[in-house]
């Protein structure tokens, strides 16, 4: 289990690094925009991301 978790974490880092590598200016603008979003909206986006991810894992498995 730990090996699979490590692989998943490494893949997440690769995927997360694609956008700043390809378009750093746009990424910087996105970070600035995210800083202005209120906590409730951030929590909602985070929750939605977790639900979608868990749902996709359930479907795949």
UniProtKB/TrEMBL annotation:
A Pfam family recorded for this sequence: DUF2065
InterPro entries tied to this protein: DUF2065
Swiss-Prot/TrEMBL keywords: Membrane, Transmembrane, Transmembrane helix
Transmembrane segments: 5-22, 42-60
Coiled coil feature spans: none
Protein name: DUF2065 domain-containing protein
Taxonomic placement: Bacteria, Pseudomonadati, Pseudomonadota, Gammaproteobacteria, Cellvibrionales
